[in-house]
Design a protein that fits this description.
The chain is α/β, with parallel strands linked by helices and 339 residues long. The protein has 13 helices and 16 strands. Strands 4-3-2-1-5-6-8-7 form an eight-stranded parallel β-sheet, with helices on both faces. Strands 9, 10, 11, 12, 13, 14, 15 and 16 form an eight-stranded mixed β-sheet that branches. β1 (2-7), α1 (11-21) and β2 (26-33) form a beta-alpha-beta unit. The structure holds nicotinamide-adenine-dinucleotide.
Length: 339
């Protein structure tokens, strides 16, 4: 069993912990918090040993009747891999600690590519992650872009990509963030950082991205256009997306035309936390006009990177060397039912 520690038990960390816990070849040795919170209580209820970044705060946890297993340093000493899901920027400051402990570490998309020197997506470069000590799983938007670009490039060859990200304002529980009544250009300049980030995983793609933030919490919506080298047929694209383990087709017959309906659908499917780990591509939006491909895809920001972290653990620890096999184990352990 691969022993996994999760440093930072927030939106991403708590989902990675549950996903790791569901795998047959991994176990959660601990999760960490900085102060007592609803999530700290949940960690205790789920039986995850709770460690704290600053051990001098142990008293505060004890007063809140939350048992502390030790410091983050202690947690890392018991782990083969640490998944760092601390807020963007904090993860990089933990690198020295991981280096000293000689532990493998995975960072999230809030950190720069340089934190690990290698950016990961299971569908694109799993084999290059085999045996690595440090890996960064790219952000939710970049993960969604990488999956669909790689799938289309394998099928038809992609000459260029133009994509606009309509981004959620905040995660559902983040009461302090987000525009209340505005569309915020994020950034106002073009391109946004997403295109260059895709290049850290799929080099040599001509890609320009634009982004804006809107007052919604559940998902991002991508408007994607690609120029193909050889014109694709819609039925071939539907078949390839239908067969892809991390792409889900939102069927026209469901009548779903919004992220709100998609969230309700995910909930009714019985997905934990209504999580959608796959790219949700609207079947009816797929269009091929000349050599140009178009689609809308919804990306659940809290969920799509979770399964990538699980695969990254397998690649780095070399317990599974075949990407398709790791993806299969991850998906089936989570009960990844088709949307
Ligand atoms: P979050 O704020 O929800 O959770 C971070 C957790 O880390 C919190 O529980 C906090 O208590 C804890 N923490 C803070 N400082 C710490 C420290 N020094 N040591 C240990 N724990 C500490 O953040 P998040 O949204 O889960 O984001 C985590 C990372 O994942 C970021 O890099 C972010 O960019 C990336 N990411 C977030 C999303 C998303 O939509 N939320 C999607 C993809 C990637």
């Amino acid at each position: 069993m691969i022993r996994v520690a999760i440093n930072g038990y927030g939106t991403i960390g708590k989902r990675v912990a549950d996903a790791v816990n569901a795998q047959p070849d991994m176990e959660v040795v601990g999760v960490s918090k900085t102060k007592p919170s609803a999530e700290a209580y949940i960690a205790a209820k789920k039986g995850y040993p709770l460690y704290i970044a600053d051990i001098s705060k142990k008293e505060v946890f004890t007063k809140a009747e939350i048992e502390v297993a030790g410091s983050v340093g202690d947690m890392i000493d018991n782990a083969d891999v640490v998944v760092d899901a601390t807020p963007g920027g904090i993860g990089a400051s933990n690198r020295e600690m991981y280096e000293k402990a000689g532990v493998k570490a995975i960072w999230q998309g809030g950190e720069d590519h340089n934190v690990a020197g290698f950016s990961f997506n299971s569908s694109c470069n799993y084999n290059d992650a085999i045996g690595r000590q440090f890996v960064r799983v790219v952000s939710c938007n970049t993960t969604g872009l990488c999956r669909v670009i790689k799938a289309m490039d394998d099928l038809f060859g992609v000459r260029k990509v133009r994509a606009t990200m309509v981004r959620r304002g905040s995660d559902p529980g983040e009461v302090k963030k987000g525009p209340v009544d505005a569309v915020v250009l994020n950034p106002v300049t073009i391109p946004s950082h997403h295109g260059p980030d895709v290049l850290t995983v799929i080099p040599d793609i001509d890609i320009v991205t634009l982004a804006m933030i809107v007052p919604t919490t559940f998902m991002h919506m991508h408007v994607i256009q690609m120029d193909l080298e050889s014109g694709g047929k819609k039925e071939d694209i539907l078949k390839a997306f239908g067969d892809h383990p991390r792409i889900g087709l939102v069927k026209g017959s469901t009548g779903i035309k919004s992220t709100a309906e998609l969230k309700e659908y995910a909930s009714d499917l019985g997905r934990p936390r209504a999580d959608l780990w796959e790219n949700c591509i609207f079947e009816d939006s797929i269009a091929v006009i000349g050599s140009e491909f178009y689609c809308f895809q919804a990306i659940h920001q809290e969920a799509d990177v979770v399964v990538e972290n699980v695969d990254a653990i397998r690649a780095m620890t070399e317990i599974v060397k075949d990407p398709a096999e790791s993806i299969r184990i991850t998906n089936s352990s989570l009960g990844f039912n088709a949307i």
